Fold this protein.
Amino acid sequence: MKVSIIGATGYAGAELLRLLAGHPGAEVVHLTSESYTGKPVSEVYPHLAGLYDQRLESLDDLERIGADSDFIFIGLPAGHAMEIGRKLAGQPVRIIDLGADYRFRDIATYEAWYKVRHTHPEARRVYGLAELYREDIRTAPIIGNAGCYTTASILALAPLVKNGLIDLKTVVVDAASGVSGAGRSAKLPNHFPELYDNFKAYGAVSHRHTPEIEQALTDLGGEAVTLNFTPHLVPMSRGILATAYAMLRDGVTETAVDEAFRTLYAGEYFIRLRGRGSYPETKYVRGSNFCDLGWHIDPRTHRVIVFSAIDNLVKGAAGQAVQNFNIAAGFDETLGLKLAPVYP
């Protein structure tokens, strides 16, 4: 398959290049960057030297890029992918958007949380979380790749919601991310003296990943889910650890919780169940497409607590995009992604 990456010089774009370099079913034909147009991509990212010789292009000839490609990955901020999708709507090229433009079925929800008018509301799209929407992904012309915080959070809660084991009014998620999740552009809060030796929360009650988590859990549970989601920033480059809390319904046993996780994720290569009583760590998934899950049950408060660890740039972005690409292209889902985590 001929693939192109629009916005190839962000962290997610660079990670896509790393993964696609070892993918036998993908030929990278176009790379774009408005910031580094004309430069070799290996000059922007020296770790890719010897793997990619292409010079970065602008989007001036988008139609040609679309005509040359079977799939286009888009790694741009919210509000840009929908314009690209609209302009390419007449071409057979399929789109995998790593941003938020195509993640929501309800355009009003997107516009309310992102404060951007959606210019491609008629697009045929599907939410790109493979473990839950695999069959829809196979034929979708546009795939809205699931967000990083959302992937960790949804996968933590999905077995409990799908099996009706928790009170949906009591869901709370705290999640901590490495700073690469904030992108590559220079920002004062991410400046080394500001970030190092510090741990902080942000976006309480207003983070844009909240409605994305709610949408998927509502699909699973069959009733509207409203939850509290609070993100945190930690002084590391990669990784997300999400901690989800909820009240168990009356009569729910530890065995029922264990069985819910085992049943939903049976045969899922990228979900590793660490089991009840375990504590997944970000270092155990670094550089890989795995999601590690562990859970605890507090008999005193009757709460279940689930820990979910992913690499935000892989399972939370580029790896998930390649997983979706594999499904949509008819490849084995693990192609190019059987990567052992980098340790230590």
